[in-house]
Structure formats: structure tokens, C-alpha cells
Amino acid sequence: MINSRLTSLIRKEFIQILRDPRTLALTFVLPVVMLFLLGYAATNDVRNVPLAVFDQDRSAASRRLLDAYRAADYFQLAYEVGSEEEIRSLIDRNTARAGLVIPPDYGEKITAGRPAQIAFLLDGSDPNVANTALAAATMIGQSYATNLMVERLERVGQAGSVQMPLEVRTRVLYNPAMVSAYYMIPGLIGMILQLLTTMLTASSIVRERERGTIEQLIVTPLRSWELVVGKLIPYVLIAFFDMLEILVIGVLVFKVPINGSLGLFLALSALFLIGSLGMGLLISTVARTQQEAMLTTMFTLYPSIFLSGFLFPLAAMPQILQWISYAVPMRYFLIIARGVILKGVGLSDIWAEVVALSIFSLIMMGAAAARFHKRLD
């Protein structure tokens, strides 16, 4: 019977996986390692930037200014120096990332109600840190200047008659604390699904060819489609286990909220999984060795990392790369994953991405089926 043939092949595949400790480690340990590495290390949050301070005034006014910078968690007042050259030396050694220079007449000018200036030096070798630190330094300085102006008006009894010409009230949706892990972990699910399913599927069939055991499968009553399905089902189950593993750890450890339908997310993950399995099967028809299959898989993974919006925003890329990104299925899955998990959107909001993933899955499975034959070559 077909069911018994499939069951035997699936059982054989599971036994082969269980007998290979490297495959087991790759399957179950790698997702957890990647989750913790990316969840904790891959963050765009800039906090506790080491700041070197050259306070030439050392007055009560300068201490209040430093308290304003210390109160914000963007900067850590790590060094007190005696010259600007020392600040530059610390920045050159990558010990400090920024420097604050307070002139000797700062307190005198502030007390007299005259404009005072301070200098803020930034290490621009890392633009991400520099841009955030620059914005934070400017924001803290403007806020402190506003407070000083209000205090002066209060002293002359005019504070109540002065109002700010503009008040901006902000509200952050879906991720109010702007935690990077909330953004990274849904994307990591897609990376794990594509990497493991593509690599394991490709190497599994190539391994059969390398070891000569493909001959034993060929002489069995298994049809070609049964051979494909029997080889793929174990990795489908493994991929879903890894996905649930990441979701559970993400919710329990990183406190990632699941605001949308879990059933919808699992169904769309299965759609993405079909495309990844088709890609792995297609690679197995091209590669002749497991090493070649691994290298080809890694080659297909790079566009998913750099052109999908996983690490870098697509809007910041050159127009030509933005056009190329439309051919990367991970681009659509990331929108789906982050939309369903973080925003709680429904199918009506992501139907365009679902259609794109469906087209990709049909193309991959169709191409793989056209090239895969139950033969040795």
C-alpha cells in the first residue's frame, strides 16, 4: 500500500537522522544558539555610550549639565580628562566613543543669562552609534536649555505667560519600548526555516547518492513523488518543531508578544516552508556532493540576510537592490511574521505578500519536480 511505503520511508529517514549526532545538533541546537546570539547581540539600541568629560568650569551649573547627560541612559560618564587631546586619545583607542567639553566661563554665562556653548565630540567610525549618539546629545542639550529658560522666566515671574509654540506628543505602536528582540525574533524564525529546510533537504538526497543507498530506493516499488514526499516530511516536522522552539523561547525569555492569530502564522509559515523545501530539492538535483549542496545553500541564504530587511532597512538601499529584493521570498515572509506576531494583522492586510509567497513556492516546487527523477544521474 502507498501509506505503508511512505511510512517505511519516513521511518527510515528518521532513523538515519537520529543516528547522525551532527544533524541532531544542527537541527535542535543551532536555532537556540542563533536565537540568543541575535536576540541579545544583534540590536540597534544604543545605550551607555562611553563619554569622556573635560569640565574646565567645575561649577554648580556644569555639574547640573553633567547630571542631565548622566540621567539619560544613552551615555555613561566614564572618564574625566584634563584636555581635549586626552579625549581624542581615548576616542582613537576606542575606549571612549564621545567627548564633552565644557568651557571655563560656562557657569558664569549661565548665571548671567547669556548664551553659553559646549562642545560635543563623536567617533564617526561607526555611523549607527554616531547618528544615535548625536541625536541623543542634541535632544538632551535642547531639553536642558528649555528647562534653563523656564527657570529664568520663573525668577522674573513670567513663566506662566510663556508657552511653547509647538508640542509634539508621540505614541509608539506595537513595540512601545522599542525592544530590538521583538523585531529580530520573528525574522529569525524565517531564517531558521529557510536555512535548515533547504540545507537538510538538499544534503539528505545528495547523501543518499554519495553513499550509494539511492540505488536501494530506486529498486523499491516507491514512485518518484512518494520518494520526494517521504524524504521531505521528516524535515517538515523538524522545521515546525524548531519554529515552535523559537516561539516558546522568544515568548518566555525575550517576552515577545504574539498579538495575532497563531493559526494564521503557522499556516503561512507552512506556505513559506513549501518554497524552502522546493529550493532544497532543486539544489539536490544540481549538487553532486554534500559539500557542494552546503555551499549552494549558503549562497542562496546571503540574499535572504541582506536583501530581505532582516538586518538592514530596504528603504536605505540603492534602488537597484530594492528591485532585486522583490525576488527574495524572505522579504515577504518577514512582513508576514512581524505583521502577525507584533501588529496582530489579518489576512486582508498581508494578502499581497501571501500571493508572492504562493507564486515563489509554485515556481520552486515546479522546477524541482521537473528536474527530479527517480534515477542515478
What would you note in describing this structure?
Helix content is 65%, strand content 6%. With 377 residues, the chain is mainly alpha-helical. The chain folds into two domains: 2-42 and 178-371, no CATH class; 49-157, 3-Layer(aba) Sandwich (abc type-2 transporter like fold), CATH 3.40.1710.10. A four-stranded mixed β-sheet has the order 2-1-3-4, sandwiched between helices. α7 (180-211) runs antiparallel to α11, α10 runs antiparallel to α13 (329-343) and α10 (262-286) runs parallel beside α14. It is elongated. The mean pLDDT is 80.
Distance between the termini: 28 Å
Biggest beta-sheet profile: 4 strands, mixed
Shape: elongated
Helical content band: 55-70%
Could you give a short description of this structure?
The chain is built from 14 helices and four strands. With 377 residues, the protein is mostly helical.
SSE order and pairing:
Blueprint (H helix, E strand, L loop, with lengths): L1 H17 L2 H20 L8 E7 L4 H12 L3 E6 L3 H9 L5 E5 L3 H7 L6 E4 L4 H29 L24 H32 L2 H5 L5 H29 L9 H25 L3 H17 L12 H7 L3 H15 L7 H21 L6
Parallel strand pairs: 1-2, 1-3
Antiparallel strand pairs: 3-4
Structural features:
377 residues, mainly alpha, abc type-2 transporter like fold, 2 domains, 14 helices, 4 strands, 6% strand, elongated
